[in-house]
Amino acid sequence: MDDSNSLQRRAQLLQHQAARLSPTTRAMAWSIASSFLFVALNSLMRELTMQMHAYEVQFLRYLMGLLVMLPLMLRAGLATYRPKNIVGQFTRGAVHTVGLILWFIAIPHITIADTTAIGFTTPIFIMLGAVLLFKEPMRWERWLAAAIGFAGVLIVVAPKLTGQGGWYSLVMLAASPVFAISFLITKALTRYERAEVIVAWQAISITVLSLPLALLHWTMPGLGQWLLFALCGLLGSSVHYCLTRSYAAADISATQSVRFLELVWATLLGWLVFGDIVSSSTLMGGVVICASTLWIARRESRGPR
């Protein structure tokens, strides 16, 4: 009982300390958490796509994400997860499904670090969309951090475009603006939908839309693969929950440069799990990306001047 009370007090203390942070700082913290979870998820997805067809992996990943959330949904009551705009939920799911199809085609053929680096073009499209659609203020610090981070991405990606996996790198690159549209729709949905509702209906919509392609290439997963899919479901739901909380806390453009830290996590996991050789261009680009991320995090924590 004492241990339970102690944990409860610690949780309340953490919540109190988090509430004292500025909205932008809280949003960046949620974004950093999502970046680490996202790279771990990508690593598992790459492993599974080497064993099974990509479309089946896509379907099972979101099906398991839905099953992971189901106990929480039943406990709170299904009525609490009824969306206010079901058309918007399925529109977001359809757009994200298209991006996933492109992403899953490319993921088995390029390293996790390169996958992550190419995905960093998504924040650039998000920042542009946030300015055009939501009229968010774009201070010069955000543009500069994005430009420096994107330069780091080019350092990583440019040598690979001329190699054997160049075509798959372009396919991965094509997924970035599609994902950007999906995340912008998420930002719009946060105005009147709770984060849990958005994440749940993303899992529902993508599961439904991915099923036809999965059935065309279906093979029965083994026990080990089912366990990996269960872990993917947990990680995936956690990633999108963190992102949604981040988008609800502050301007979507304020948090995008922090996502460049994903390259650090991707490089480490790719080396540890897959034995991917880290190239000098990846290391150099990573240093540039980290520098821009740390600088903008410090500037944003001080608030607008």
Descriptive notes:
The protein has 305 residues and is mainly alpha-helical. It has one domain. It is 80% helix and 0% strand. The chain is built from 13 helices and no strands. Helix 5 runs antiparallel to helix 12, helix 7 runs antiparallel to helix 13 and helix 9 runs antiparallel to helix 10. The longest helix has 27 residues. The radius of gyration is 19 Å and the shape is globular.
Q: What is the total domain count?
A: 1
Q: Which percent bin holds the helix content? A: over 70%
Distance between the termini: 48 Å
Report the portion of residues in β strands: under 5%
Low-confidence stretches: none
Biggest sheet descriptor: none
Chain-averaged pLDDT = 78
Care to count the β-strands? 0
* Class based on secondary structure composition and strand pairing: mainly alpha
Q: What series of H and E elements makes up the topology?
A: HHHHHHHHHHHHH
- Round the Cα radius of gyration to an integer and report it: 19 Å
- What general outline do the C-alpha atoms trace? globular
Helix count equals: 13
